[in-house]
Design brief:
alpha/beta, five-stranded parallel sheet, 491 residues
Length: 491
């Protein structure tokens, strides 16, 4: 989903100019004519990812008063203040009131975009640090599970009830639906939060070491046992042990697991006496455990012991309305990890991703977004960034027919294949005037910029790249040449 910027300014012209710059970078823009309107929006269910707030607005609360009231109401949205008075005292007062940045009006497009990006990145970094801290300390909660569809709300409601006790929980669902995320939320919402959360993938344990890994062993208990090992049960003592893919455990280990659950103690391999443990068991499987019991692959008594409180995690195709929120979550995370600045998905891309069935569920969506974000060239993810789903290949860059040297002059080299297969189009830029005289560089430059604005639909980043100049230089030339109206028409 595109990030939303709330522009609070009593000057409609200023609001439109800011909107034009932001929308070309893929941001959604909403307006408020005064501080009161902004306060109402942000405190009564409306939302925004960044607020651009004018400090001087007649007929209502000032910018500083608006900012103070927002912070008092608990609104933590990053605020960038706009001021025509760039005095130190004004800036200091704004920062003390809780502003993250400030712009001196009139603000240049490049400065505006950098400020908004920095504000968003700081918010994302803070959120990611909070998520990682919760995960590392075992305090992930059901509020951290992304999604608000009816199926996921049911999971959250059941999980919140189960978390209050130490009742064994069995989470079922297809591979990749996020069973471990639910298990971590169960632990984080329980009285055991902050204690160890130990996850074990039973399907990945070597057959000859399953018992040792789960229950521990004494030094010298078997060949290679050079030192004592506590085991996962002891490691999770006081906390939660998550047994993922529980259906993969061998039958002989299932017997020992059942005893550990019933007696609250484990027998280390080679040990002389059992070890008492206090562990809450959460297990998960992508198989049908009842069918496994019928087939003799899973002990019936262990199944009943684990399946006291079942929770079924829904497949992603059953909660399609959560896909935009999940995509936004993954983009935020990968932007930080990969130092990217992807804003979101284009509408057609979002429709494409929501219509897809996602056989690999949330895990597949996560990896697909990761790949697309790493390879994307534009601020908005496009259908061609998902070729396996859209069937659309990324557009190829057409190399220039005439190469240029360091001084900008043609060096005479050509790509013979391109020259042979790509006819040179008629140039829309006139070099001579009606009398055959060469036109001035300024006139030719103006026509070239105007043509580029039309060809690339006013997308200033692409225009600057194609013209080989910086965006700030491009914006300056647009102003000097009076081409602002052409940008609005192209956009």
């Amino acid at each position: 989903m595109a990030k939303t910027v709330l522009v609070v300014d009593d000057d409609p012209t200023q609001r439109r100019l800011i909107q034009a710059v932001l929308e070309r970078e893929g941001y959604a823009v909403v307006h408020a004519e005064n501080g009161g309107e902004a306060i109402d929006r942000l405190t009564k269910g409306g939302s925004a990812d960044v607020v651009l707030l004018d400090l001087v607005m007649p007929g209502g609360p000032s910018g500083l008063e608006t900012l103070a009231e927002l912070r008092t109401a608990g609104v933590n949205t990053p605020v960038i203040v706009l001021t025509a008075n760039g005095g130190i005292e004004t800036v200091v007062r704004a920062m003390q009131a809780g502003a993250q940045d400030f712009f001196i009006k009139p603000v240049g497009p490049e400065r505006l975009l950098v400020g908004v990006r920095n504000a968003l990145q700081m918010t994302q970094l803070t959120a990611e640090i909070g998520r990682l801290k919760k995960r590392s300390t075992g305090r992930t909660s059901f509020d951290d599970i992304v999604g608000d569809s009816p199926p996921i709300r049911m999971v959250k409601a059941l999980g919140a009830r189960a978390a209050k006790s130490s009742i064994p929980v069995l989470i079922t669902g297809e591979s990749g639906v996020g069973k471990e995320v639910i298990a971590r939320a169960l632990h984080g919402a329980s009285p055991r939060a902050g204690k160890p959360f130990v996850a074990v993938n039973c399907g990945a344990l070597p057959a000859n070491l399953v018992e040792s890994i789960l229950f521990g062993h004494e030094k010298g208990a078997f060949t290679g046992a050079h030192e004592k090992h506590a085991g996962k049960f002891v490691e999770a003592n006081g906390g939660t042990l998550f047994l993922d893919e529980i259906g993969e455990l061998p039958l002989d280990i299932q017997v020992k697991l059942l005893r550990a659950l019933q007696e609250g103690e484990v027998d280390p391999v080679g040990g002389k006496r059992p070890v008492k443990v206090d562990v809450r068991i959460v297990s998960a499987t992508n198989r049908d455990p009842a069918q496994q019991v019928k087939e003799g692959a899973f002990r019936e008594d262990l199944f009943y012991r684990l399946n006291v409180f079942p929770i079924e995690a829904p497949a992603l195709r059953e909660r399609r309305e959560d896909i935009p929120a999940l995509i936004d979550h993954f983009i935020t995370r990968f932007n930080i990890e990969e130092s990217k600045r992807i804003v979101g998905c284009s509408p057609e891309t979002m429709a494409l991703l929501q219509a897809y069935d996602w056989p690999g569920n949330v895990r597949q969506l996560e990896n697909t977004i990761y790949r697309a974000l790493v390879l994307a060239d534009s601020p908005m993810l496009q259908p061609h960034d998902f070729p396996a789903i859209s069937g659309i290949a990324a557009p190829l860059e057409v190399p220039s027919i005439v190469a240029t040297g360091p001084d900008g002059e043609a060096d005479g080299t050509q790509d013979q294949n391109v020259a042979a297969s790509t006819p040179a189009p008629d140039s829309p830029i006139r070099i001579t005037d009606e009398r055959g005289h060469v036109r001035t560089l300024e006139e030719i430059e103006r026509d070239l910029i105007q043509h580029a604005i039309e060809v690339y639909s006013g997308h200033m980043s692409e225009i600057a790249r194609r013209l080989g100049i910086g965006r700030s230089t491009l914006y300056r030339k647009v102003r000097e040449q009076g081409l602002e109206d052409h940008i609005k028409e192209a956009g």
